Amino acid sequence: MQKWHSDPMATQQVDVLLFDAFSALCLANTVEPLRAANEFAARSVYEWRFLTLDGAPAVSSSGMEVRAHAKLSECSGDILIAMPSYDFLRHATVGANRALRAADRRYRVMAGFDTGAWLLATAGLLDGRRATIHWEELNRFTETFPDVDAERVRHVQDGNRITCSGALAAFETILELISQQQGQALRLEVATLFMSPEATGEQGTLMGRSKSVARAIAVMQAHLEHPLPIGAIARQTGRSQKDLESRMRSELGATPQAIYRRLRLIQARKLVLETGLSVAEIALRSGYEDPSALTRAFRTEFGVTPRSLRSTGQ
């Protein structure tokens, strides 16, 4: 995937275009990872707005009303995500087509989540592109839009077009975008917060990660207080240490040692912010025998010492 913006320090504007009968789960899986990324990064990495075509509220399939921040025609940004969900055929109107084509000139990336690909395709924004849609609609989508290269996968990015197949896939797609813009470390923190499969090791291939890498992360998570040698972790995954290191570099962009250290420091930061434990006790619970060693690693990773972080509460 390409980055949304050339400057990783720039705040990314993410707008979600809602239609009546949208999936509240899909919406939550889109914006909650962005909120968490802001918290972990301790800055506004992402901003988001809920839009509608006319600026009126949108009502989800479960009856939840969401107030629109603005009309689509009034906005521009880095990414626009069309989210019609259940009533997508009713929303594929001439007016929606015109609005989406105009928005394509104001947004860097156009995306369709769940059945949003149908609206993009109707507007001619997916011609000659690879795309996916909720799999229940894939056959009809393929027949209706022969100029779109439809794929039975969970999410696709082709240039500045992104599509995903449903609510859970929306979460995975946002994680992938976070990793592309902000790096695998922040992605892993967000995944860990929401107990996603890639962080727990369950259903590892769901997140596009091999089972052995997912299993290795799960073993690391289970042994933060008493860290295991990487060789021992590799054996529990059924791989050699060299093979595991190669796989983790390829899939996560970092060595097992770096990932393990990050997980232990995430644990330490959580204890600093959420408990009154001493730094010495936090060090022990995070696999550091020496509080000074924890403080050095903590400062290198987060740019602040544990005591300073606790005093600011950020």
Explain what this protein looks like in three dimensions.
The chain has 314 residues and is α/β, with parallel strands linked by helices. It folds into three domains: 12-179, Class I glutamine amidotransferase (GATase) domain (Rossmann fold, 3-Layer(aba) Sandwich), CATH 3.40.50; 195-253, no CATH class; 259-312, Arc Repressor Mutant, subunit A (Orthogonal Bundle), CATH 1.10.10. The protein is built from 15 helices and eleven strands. It has helices at residues 24-41, 88-91, 94-103, 116-122, 138-144, 167-182, 184-193, 197-200, 211-222, 230-237, 241-252, 256-274, 279-285, 291-302, 306-312, and strands at residues 12-18, 46-52, 58-59, 65-66, 70-71, 77-83, 107-112, 130-131, 149-150, 155-158, 161-164. The chain has a seven-stranded mixed β-sheet with strand order 5-2-1-6-7-11-10, with helices on both faces. The protein starts with 11 loop residues before the first strand and ends with a helix. InterPro entries: Class_I_gatase-like, DJ-1/PfpI, Homeodomain-like_sf, HTH_AraC, HTH_AraC-typ_CS, INH-QAR. Keywords: DNA-binding, Transcription, Transcription regulation. This is Helix-turn-helix domain-containing protein. Residues 214-312 form the HTH araC/xylS-type domain.
Topology:
Blueprint (H helix, E strand, L loop, with lengths): L11 E7 L5 H18 L4 E7 L5 E2 L5 E2 L3 E2 L5 E7 L4 H4 L2 H10 L3 E6 L3 H7 L7 E2 L6 H7 L4 E2 L4 E4 L2 E4 L2 H16 L1 H10 L3 H4 L10 H12 L7 H8 L3 H12 L3 H19 L4 H7 L5 H12 L3 H7 L2
Parallel strand pairs: 1-2, 1-6, 2-5, 6-7, 7-11, 8-9
Antiparallel strand pairs: 3-4, 10-11
Helix pairs in contact: 1-6, 1-7, 6-7, 9-10, 9-12, 12-13, 12-14, 12-15, 13-14
